[in-house]
Design goal:
Layout (H helix, E strand, L loop, with lengths): L7 E2 L5 H10 L4 H13 L13 H10 E2 L4 E7 L5 E6 L5 E8 L3 E5 L3 E3 L14 E4 L2 H16 L8 E6 L9 H12 L11 E5 L3 H7 L7 E5 L5 H7 L2 H4 L2 H12 L8 E7 L7 H13 L5 E6 L13 H13 L4 E3 L33
Parallel strand pairs: 1-2, 6-9, 9-10, 10-11, 11-12, 12-13, 13-14
Antiparallel strand pairs: 3-4, 4-5, 5-6, 7-8
The protein binds S-adenosyl-L-homocysteine.
S-adenosyl-L-homocysteine (SAH) binds next to strand 10 and strand 12.
């Protein structure tokens, strides 16, 4: 274990909190605005670089606070341009972030926890167990680090940035830090990534789905299903024993009823060869969603295999057949294309792997 750092991470404070913090230290308010802009708009990661602050102030800040806490341990670049960052916290725990370039936008997949307490049998992160939940600052820093690495420090991304909370961890077991981080990132004087551009995925923490239904400024929601019956879901996703399908889908319906124009709500269904991908499973899934009067789209995710996991991805023809059954019963269905599998960056593959099977490029190389 590394040394504990008790200093306040200023990257984890909202602009309003930073103003209060700075006023309490007897500095003028405009210093707070300068610092917030430097950390979140110019994406600087040390007080040293904020040269408009007097040297004495920078030194004082360094004693009681930090500008950033995560460090990059390694970085893997896929042949499809996806980058996986293996970072570590000040107390030496792994944090993984994935940058996925697409034609019209980039997507950054961030982690909400180091490791994960849920024990989904098809996900490699489960094997780490929960190390700890990440702070708001640690969530925001992942996005700053990924953008700086790809585009250069403070450079404006040429395309829009979407965020997905689908990295390591269960975001809804770290709800307050997650929502706080999203608020900080939405600030127009900072990263300016608004909730509308963010999708958070949950394995089904029912009370937080209900809570999200009451929040006006909120991210898009995705629910990981993986099975259409309690028997199978209990086995694949043990969280189902706590919040079974009836309860989960009831909360989903409650959430769906609160959807506003432009908000997205989806289900994720990982396709495991011979386990949850039969015609019967497709019919059960469609009936389940129809019975709850849910209209959300289903994303089929072919399983991303990883050595110790006892599953294989469903074949392309199986996935297509499954999709056509869902669609014949009125369920909108989309097949997700896996990204970054070769560098263990795809869904369910984040387990702090250090062996890449591809090159680790030096900083500032350009994505394909
Ligand atoms: N704990 C949250 C967020 C992380 S998982 C959740 O469960 O939603 C993000 C997505 O990856 C989930 O939809 C999950 O079902 C999917 N997933 C996990 N392991 C996978 C694997 N090995 N292959 C493909 N998708 C996987």
């Amino acid at each position: 274990m590394g040394e504990m750092d008790k200093r306040t991470n200023l990257t984890g404070l909202s602009q309003a909190e930073l103003v209060e913090f700075i006023q309490q230290s007897g500095e003028p308010t405009y210093r707070a605005r300068q610092i917030f802009g430097a950390l979140h708009h110019r994406r600087l990661r040390s007080f040293e670089e904020i040269t408009e602050l007097p040297k004495a102030l920078r030194e004082r800040l360094n004693e009681t606070t930090t500008a950033s806490t995560l460090t990059i341990e390694s970085r893997y670049v896929s042949e499809d341009g996806t980058r996986r960052f293996l970072m570590k916290t000040h107390d030496n725990l792994p944090v993984e972030t994935v940058f996925i370039p697409e034609e019209r936008r980039d997507t950054i997949c961030f982690s909400s926890q180091s490791g994960c307490p849920l024990q989904c049998t098809f996900c490699l992160t489960a094997q780490l167990g929960l190390l700890r939940s990440l702070s708001p600052g640690e969530i925001v820093e992942q996005i700053i680090i990924a953008l700086n690495d790809v585009y250069g420090v403070g450079e404006k991304p040429p395309r829009g940035t979407n965020l997905v909370g689908m990295g390591a961890g269960e975001p809804f077991l770290n709800f307050d830090s997650l929502m706080k981080a999203l608020g900080i990132m939405a600030d127009p004087q900072g990263l300016f990534i608004v909730p509308h551009r963010v999708t958070v995925s949950t394995a089904g923490v029912v009370p937080r789905i209900r809570e999200l239904a009451t929040i006006p400024q909120r991210p898009n929601l995705a629910i990981s299903l993986a099975a259409p019956t309690d028997d199978l879901r209990d086995e694949l996703m043990p969280i189902n024993k706590k919040w079974p399908l009836e309860e989960l889908l009831g909360a989903c319906k409650e959430f769906e009823l609160t959807l506003k124009a432009g908000e997205r709500f989806t289900f994720e269904y990982v396709m495991l060869d011979g386990i949850n991908d039969s015609d019967e499973h497709a019919r059960q899934l469609a009936n389940l969603l129809n019975r709850h009067d849910l209209h959300a789209r289903v994303n089929l995710i072919p399983h991303n295999p990883a050595d110790p996991l006892p599953y294989q991805p469903s074949s392309t023809s199986r996935v297509e057949r499954f999709k056509s059954i869902l669609e014949s019963k009125g369920v909108r269905t989309f097949v997700r294309r896996p990204r970054g599998r070769d560098i263990f960056a795809a869904c369910g593959q984040l387990a702090a792997r250090r062996e890449p099977n591809t090159i680790q490029v030096s900083s500032q190389s350009i994505v394909a």
